[in-house]
Each structure stands twice: as C-alpha cells, then as structure tokens.
Amino acid sequence: AQTVTQSQPEMSVQEAETVTLSCTYDTSESDYYLFWYKQPPSRQMILVIRQEAYKQQNATENRFSVNFQKAAKSFSLKISDSQLGDAAMYFCAYRRSATNKLIFGTGTLLAVQP
Amino acid sequence: DAGVIQSPRHEVTEMGQEVTLRCKPISGHDYLFWYRQTMMRGLELLIYFNNNVPIDDSGMPEDRFSAKMPNASFSTLKIQPSEPRDSAVYFCASSPLQGAAYNEQFFGPGTRLTVL
Question: pLDDT (tens digit, 9 = 90+) per residue, B2-23?
Fold first, then answer.
C-alpha cells in the first residue's frame, strides 16, 4: 500500500526567509502524481503545487518550488521569501495515475515569524 | 464559479442522532469525494463517486455511514446513529474528468461535526 510520510510536525521561518518542508512516499508504481496542499486556519484546502512523476523537471509556482527525487521517493516543498500569509498546515499527497484516490501525509504546521 | 459548497459549516448533535452532511460539487465535474479529517488519523478518503456512481467506499468506517449522490449536483453523507468518535471535519471535493492531466481535486470549506 502507498504511504506518505511528513517527518516534520512543525516548522518555523522568519518572514522573507526560505523554508523547506519534507515529504517521502512509498510506492511500487511508476506513474503517479504528487501534490502539496495548504490548509490555513480557515481550513480550506488549497492546492499549492503538483508534480507528475514522469517529469524530471521540478515544478515551480511563483515562490513555491519542489525538489522531486524519484529514486529516493522524496518530494520536498521550498517556500522562498516567506510571507505571513504562508502560515498554515501543509499536506503532501500522492495519487496513482490510474485512480483518483489521494493519499495524504500527516501534515506540517508552518509558522511564519514577523 | 462558486466552488464546492458544503452545508452546514458546523453541526453539533447528541450521540445517537442522525446527521446529514450535504455537498454541491463544481458544475461539470464528474468526480465527487468525501474525506474526514481528525487529529488522530489525518485526512482520510471515505468514498468517491464517478458520474453519480460510487466507485470506492473502502474508506467508509462502518455501516453507520452511508453516502448517496442522487444527481450530478448533490451528494449527502449520513451518519446514523452518530457517536462521539465521529467528531471531525468532513470535506467534500470534486474533480473533472479523468482525462484532465492533473485531475485536480477542489475542496469545499468542510463541515465541522461535534457529537456530544
């Protein structure tokens, strides 16, 4: 069975600094997608960034980028120039291409210090 | 687009009562998902539908839980009878047809259920 592990329950970063959130996953599949979702205090789940496993190039969305290491089954999220609005719970998620089932990690609570 | 709509946003009930959570997916989306979020278990997929048909209900915890999708614009998740351990935030999400490259799931705001 596929699993997603986020080993950092909490992280903290200073405003304008860079922070990296870790995620590892376990799968025997070769075709899948990986996602990072943000859940602010409003509890709305917001998609931050996504990566297709067959793409070697790391995805980037403005200040958000990933480091996708397929062989190591690692998918970390880097937030550059952190802003107060980035404070939230961040979830890493995996989806096998043949299904629509998202499997989530346990989340990392990110605090941004002014 | 109004996004995924869930009601109620908050529900407080007593043990043994029936609870019905409602969801309106984004128009045109073919898939609908029900998730439960708790501190202990995180985010879990309960069930999902494709074109109103349940595809995978392996995450439904027990027979007290049931979900229906009578049409493309409405789904319910019912708990009968409710128990304190059902207290959680329940999310509904929808996504477009499988053919879309990422098949992104769009989440509703969630329903916070408290069973006393």
Answer: 899 999 999 999 999 999 999 9
pLDDT at B75: 98
CB contact under 8 A, A100 and B31: yes
B57 contacts chain A (CB < 8 A): no
What's residue A91's pLDDT? 96
Residues 6+ apart with CB under 8 A from A79: A13, A18, A19, A20, A21, A63, A64, A86, A110
Is B2:B102 a contact under the CB 8 Å cutoff? no
Percent of chain A residues topping a pLDDT of 70: 100
Residues on chain B touching A102 (C-beta within 8 angstroms):
33, 45, 105
| Distance, CA of B92 to chain centre | 4
Residue entry with tokens 């793409």: A55
Tally Cβ neighbours within 10 Å of residue B26.
Answer: 18
What would the pLDDT profile of B88-111 be if each residue is shown by its tens digit?
999 999 998 765 556 788 999 999
Hey, what long-range contacts does B42-51 have (CB within 8 A, 24 or more apart)? B42/A104, B42/A105, B42/A106, B42/A107, B43/A91, B43/A104, B43/B91, B45/A101, B45/A102, B45/A103, B46/B77, B47/B77, B48/A100, B48/A101, B49/B75, B50/A100
Cis amide bond preceding A114, omega within 30: no
